[in-house]
Amino acid sequence: MESMGKIRSSWDLYVEEALGKLESRKKFAPLRPMNASMAGQEEGAQTNLDEDEYETYQGIQPWDRLASQIQLPQIFFQRLMAGLELTSKNEREEHEIISSNQEKKFKKLTLFAGNDFLGLSRHPTIAKAMAKAAMEQGTGPRGSPLVCGYTNYHMALESALANLKKKEVLELQFATIGGQPRKFSDALNHASIVDGLKIAEQQGGVELSVYKHCDMSHLDALLTKCKNKRKVVVTDSLFSMDGDIAPMGELAHLRQKHGFLWVLDDAHGTFAWGKNGGGLAEEFNCEYDVDLCVGTLSKAASSLGGFVACSKIWKQWIQSRGRSFFFSTIAPIPLVAASYVSICHLLREFLQAGFYCVAVGPPAVPPKTARIRLTLTAVQTTEDIKRLAALISKYVKFQVPSYIDSSNYTSARL
Which residue range or ranges hold the Aminotransferase class I/classII large domain (predicted)? Predict the structure, then answer.
């Protein structure tokens, strides 16, 4: 615990110095919180989001199954079956037929390609909360969070996310501190991470090193060799294309050893992993080792937008220097209300757990590593998964992972 405290204090010192410079130059950008009023509300009264007013359910409901079912126009389905998806020969004609409503035949499929991990996109309580917010508030004050967009709805969502992640949060991407820190990135990090680091490197803000995928020995060697005082390690928690998990415990150990700033992209783990839905850091009991946790509301929360969970001092730095934060219009109130209710429900409900699957090829994955990407959600049934596994097993030989008992492989793989 003592070493963790020293690491945190070291980075806090860097940020405190940077904030001091901003304040001395009168460039500190404070948030301006405001209450979103509605018609007929008395002056001074505050609109609050009360999680107790939202109805909860147990077990799979009819709307849950709807979240895993889609319909494709028959003309497009036939093109998929003919292997013509990646050609543009007939696409314009098909779109004209579909848009003119001439195509009236549809093929029903079970969806195994979406990001609605918990099946909340069709939940009636979330839909009602979103509709209620839209009726009372419209889309809310439309502006930057630093000008007029930071309302009590956004603060409620921020507080809920802060409690979930054991930190403070903001909806933005973080900026780097000046000076040229060295950043270390996993070789299979998401394209958004790679692009962000490349931009930072091009602007002269950082030096970038890439370590072999989940190879902690390689990362340890690079960190040991690096002479920069400020080091940052950026990694996905769950790698979406390969489906494997970053070695969280080993990363926490290396953080204590080398004193780097740990930035974790938990887009695929947030709300879906951990006892309380706090993500992979909660699952592996290293929440306090992660300095900045990047998450999204567009997957398991079935909404839109993103956030950074961090300490108060990092929050102040980000809100003053995060260009994508203060140059963007804040999320509309109905979406924020939907996100807030989604978080309330993931803490209070426990859902039981032809096919539409998407083939993924380069540049989304390295050359010669094309694969079918399957997404399992809370609304697919065991029978759905068994039927899909049986179909795929006709063409693909399943390999037993080392961590699964081969004697129980049949049931484990399903």
Answer: 110-338
